[in-house]
Fold this protein.
Amino acid sequence: MSYASFINSVSFWPKFLSLLILIPIAAFLGPGWLVYILIGFALLLSLVLNVLLRDIWKSSRIYIISVVIAIPILSLIFLKGDIALRISKAIDLALRFSLLIIVGSEFSLATNPSEIPQGLLQAHFPKQFAITVMIAFRMLPLISKKIETISQAFRMRGIELEFKIKNLLKLPLTYTMLVTPIVKQTLEMSMNLYETLLARGYTKERSITVPPFTIRLADIALISISVFFLYISIANF
Amino acid sequence: MDFILEFQKVDYRYPGAVSLALNNVSFGIPRGSITSIIGGTGSGKSTIIALAAGIFQEYGKIEQGKILPERNMEQNFRVGAVFQNPATQIHQLRVIDEIRSGPIYQGLPWDECVKRADQSLSNLLTKDYALRSPDKLSAGEVQRVTIAAAVAMDCEVLFFDEPFSFLDTRGRKDFTELLRNIQNQGITCVIVTHDLRQIEELVNWLIVIKKGKVVTQGIPAQILKEYPSDVLPVFSLPTQIKILSEWKESDSITWKIIADLLHKPGLPLFSKNTIEKKYSSVPEAKSLTFSNVNFAYNSSKIEIKDTSFSMNKGEIFALLGANGSGKSTIAKIAAGLLKPSSGQIVFENTDVTKIAASTRAKTIAYLFQQPDDMIFCSTVANEVALGPQTMKLNQIEQRTSEALKSVGLYEYQDRSPDTLSGGEKRLLCFATAFSQDAEIIILDEPEYGLDKKYWKLVQQSILKMKESGKSSLLITHRIESLPFLCDRACIVERGEIVYEGSSLSAFQFVLKKEDIFDEEAEYMVNAYSKALESGCKNEDEMVEMVSMMIRKGQGN
């Protein structure tokens, strides 16, 4: 998925600070009416971020549905007092958690994984840490593809990997056998990636160029709005 | 001679290894040249790249000798390297970040990093690629990104490790253009390979390496005369014919000359296996039938469209097409690993998708592109026995030893598969298929990473399957072997079969479509057709036959 809009030019740190710290704190400290405003703001933000509501729903529905079901049940069991009050509290809590999930999902959909290591470098995290994070992001799809291929190779040798009653006793041994080539090949892949790093001239000793951090209008706008919401929420706490 | 990089009596040993990986290796790479280092599997070619690019300065050590000009870690970027495997040679998450990474790791000012990356991107790719993820690129595109990254580092020498391994026929042709482009930018190119077809005319310096030692180095024409047996297999058929026939004329041998020679009277009959026999020997009984198969990984993108074809019993059937055209998807559907969204795949009146994995393996064996993906056990014998044990077949020991003998690995039965070379691992995979006694064997680019010696052994294994009445579905980019090896072929384009016919006609279709040998294509097909007619069973026999004709004086 690729998104491009004015707000998408927001740098990693303002986006991180705003969507994953300021707005969630405001959502939990603020009064109930502010939560509705924040949900409205999150939906409006999705339009500006050019993130489709459908995509947000797709990536977060499982969590939202779980929260909407689990919180009222838990509230009815554990909270004391009038049933109407308990239901109202449960709805309030469910809304706050759902908001958290929505802004988290917006952050992940509007952030390219490559922004994260760059952001870490800009925040003066050690370069080894930033590069490790980047390699981890790079490795995930490679490992997942490898696991799929190796599982297919298992099946082609007549080994069943499905959870069936007749297989249950064999499964631990089968999965142990499956792990060995996956670990071996993951190590090989990481060695290859490390060699690529070296071929690009990476050394432990030399310091590397850090992408400059520039504050843009979009950064200021997003941070200001988030701070404003936090202020209202603390003022009404 | 002005060498840009020179190895002087270098001895190198891997940590913990008993024998030397490089033994007293001395050679030079002329400045501005396109040099090729050639040698068989395990000859030490990749070790040379790693040492030249400074990758091995961190582990292992040069026991003797030196590499000139001497560099410290800070200067390693002068030598760039493009590795073999596309998946693991990009460590960043976007194309532009990968290209920028070299200047960034050199600690150059940010503006300079951006400038160099943008320039390199527009020279070797287009700006549209900047924000794309490496996972969405083809093998050829990944190769270009890696080259662009090396060029952005301002390297003087660029090493390519087996650049053709993952490239389709079109990709090979594009690579020759790319090589010219890089050379024009003043970069010395070194191609480490066991296959020089299509780029042999560009190479102006050759270094031959064997078992960690340099056999010779010099101008290709000279080496071809002095050491033909060491270098011939990596050259194209016309060059091989020229050398073997001791062609008197200074000009190269063209496919037109070869075709003319083969049409002259007195052509010997190589064996009784003439073209008519080859095709008529295929029994008509159906083995595997695809009927109107559609497949989509997700609802938005259809990968395979309305595909229908059938394989006969005892037939070698090829699936051809560019990278990403859907060949592997079709093969995996045939193996029952992917379920089609509609249509049917039938083997002897049974729907393949409805058979359990354990039963299916008795019918269909699948040889993955990379042998390491399908090797799980601690010894060679256990690996071969794994399938029969799982399927509860009888006479497991006998099956195992017979399968190992048939691929020439019987003596290695107690060894760990990790100690085998790439070619031997591929043969081990064949042994696993033999021991399963499957009726159909599916081979996904079995030529990957193999030198000519092992490719020949693999072809022999495929033919053995055919002799025992088994069918093979072969995905390959090695179209030159197609007319000899396969009976029929189909060509896949964007998930659709656009052509189906005899292997020779498919060969003709590909050559014309890809415009690979330009005006020579027609003569090439003609020559192959005539060679098949005269009973040649492989490319080597064709070379021998034409050389014989020339030597007999009928060509001049």
